[in-house]
Amino acid sequence: MDLSILDQSPIPSGQTAQAALQASMKLAQSGEKFGYTRYWIAEHHDLEGLACSAPEVMLGYIGANTNTIRLGCGAVLLPHYKPYKVAETYNMLATLFPNRIDIGIGRAPGGSAEATMALSDNFLDGVRKMPEKVNELIQFLHSDFPNDHMFSKVKAKPLPSIVPEPWILGTSKKSALMAAEHGTSYAFGLFMSDQDGVEILDLYKTHFRKGVTKEPKTILTVSVLCGETTEKADDLAWSSYLWRLQNARGEAKGIPSIEIARTYPYTPSEKEGFKDIYKKMIIGTPKEVSSQLIDLKKKYGVDEIMIVTITHQFEDREKSYELIAREFDLISKGGF
């Protein structure tokens, strides 16, 4: 099974954004050693506990410190930006790191309403123009505007030998249809969706038209916490759960430690809410996690599964990915 990494570059409580970004680079290096197919880093703006606001900067840094793992953004929040600049940026990365660059394309704001206003003059207009923006981005990447188009002579230089691979990321029928109509690969964010992913992925495959890719290509993104024991995995889950609670209240100050999460004075309803974690996340030992991942791959019919893991200690996050890689025998593939 092909497995990949989605990194939100979490900032542990009491630590700095610099440390979190350095940890992201180390995670990409470890992912490469462990045999993961690709590493994507997320884009967020002014969100407490998440460090990466400029994935394109991190990808240059990470690319220079890795050799084979595919790299990308999950996702470029296209409503904020002009397609030409995005094409230039990722073409430059693809020139530096040939045949290793993906462009994950999303339409979420990535932050608060105030941060959205600071980033772009009219975000909602950008959302409405997403199909047009996606089409323009693909045309810039492939330099294939019609001769009578105003951009027919404009090139998104430098032009790499192998263009970046575009993926549309989403959690809805609209995103699936957009990917199908543009002939791009599609990544469904199960970890952040309550929608029927099976129906959405089937919709993408049914309506797919040849374009950038010749046939449908899919990723399912899931939230996973893997520990050597069930108890360890549960401890990691409580830390992740408390961070979500604090974020919802506007009280988050980074990812809390296991000790803080275990001793936190939860209300009865909050303790009950922890059970929902097990419905939306995969939590357990390597065998438990691998069994659930295999079931998900069959259920959703995807080509690849991408894993997002958030913990207080980087060592726990790295170990979670390692345990999964060993269970799937990816280690030899990565040369570790």
TrEMBL record:
Checking Pfam families in the record gives:
Bac_luciferase (PF00296)
Q: Could you tell me which InterPro entries the record lists for this protein? A: Bact_Lucif_Oxidored (IPR050766), CmoO-like (IPR019949), Luciferase-like_dom (IPR011251), Luciferase-like_sf (IPR036661)
**GO terms, molecular function:** oxidoreductase activity
Q: Which Gene3D superfamilies match?
A: Luciferase-like domain
**Keyword set for this entry?**
Oxidoreductase
The Luciferase-like domain covers 1-303
Give the Enzyme Commission number. Answer: 1.-.-.-
Q: Which family does it belong to?
A: To bacterial alkanal monooxygenase alpha and beta chains.
Q: Which PANTHER family match?
A: LUCIFERASE-LIKE MONOOXYGENASE
Q: What is this protein called?
A: LLM class flavin-dependent oxidoreductase
- Give the lineage: Bacteria, Bacillati, Bacillota, Bacilli, Bacillales
